[in-house]
Amino acid sequence: MSSAQEQCTQASLPMTLGQIDAAWLTSALRTRFPDVRVRQLTIAEVMHGTCTKVWIDLETDGAQLPGRLMLKGGFEPHSRDWWSMHQMEVGGYLHILPELRLPSPTCYFAAYDEGQKQGVIVMEDLVSSGARFCHAQHPAGLTETRQRLATLAAFHARSWQSESFAPGGDWHWVQDVACDTRDYARAFLQPEVWTRYTALPRGAAVARRFHDAAWLGEALEKLVTVSSSLPHCVLHGDTHPGNLYVAADGTPGFFDSLPGHGPAMSEVAYHLVCALDVEDRRSWERELVRFYLDALASQGVEPPTEEEAMTQYAIFLARAYFIFIINASEFQKEAVNTAYTARISAAMLDHDTAGRLSAL
User: Per the confidence metrics, is the pTM higher than 0.90?
Assistant: First the structure.
């Protein structure tokens, strides 16, 4: 973090929408554009959800900046409880996405304040740039999915088995995805909590055998063991369609990263099973996994064999299932959570995820 950015962070990040004013935005943007001055700003639109997204129209002097930017931060009632998410996302925009060159929105400012447990990111407005957003209820096609897998393979390869995850390394703060998921799951797998989620429409959309909280807890524990035996790389962390876009030039893009490290097939399985319609996934997934492995090899990485990769694919579906069976309806609409859990459940049945995990 630059000294200017540290100074801006120490000066307090906005905690309410009313604190987003020309003076604060000027200080934030000066971490990248020292001569900029925001003469006027207007909050044009606000979207509430997991984080708050704020679209800002602005007039500036001293730098060539777009007339509309998007600010993302923790302005929701639940935001302080989700401080680690804000911290990880800021780290992603400051370090992971630019250093590992994963196509993403241009970031003009990102900072996390430990004392306030607040994270704020100021980035380009993708709508103004002509991007097309992906969506859970519009499954991806084959060509688009290949393009995205090729991009992910290059991204994964750049940190393959990196020593930077070790204590003292540049990425020591990046969490182990399997361990983090197992630990996070404990509170949700308590009977009084778990049954609230399985009683929702998403619960009706999945096979009854996956309503067993004890089974899922054991599965996530086993994934920690499997994960520890495999090469790790940096993962975007949340590659469902709601966090994806296609730029005006056709480049696949990624936003809302929650970076972690873990086996690459964990991310590939999560992405494919969320992004593809069930029948398309059944028809294309092995070919797409083979395509991804070839793309990894082209980046100088020795990939697993196809059968090893498909085994990893099958068992890591359990993590994808956990993410969306307990995802709050305030964060993703129930239709979206239901679409994902239905697709994941079908894939777990097709690949005998429960049987493969029980055999471990």
Answer: yes
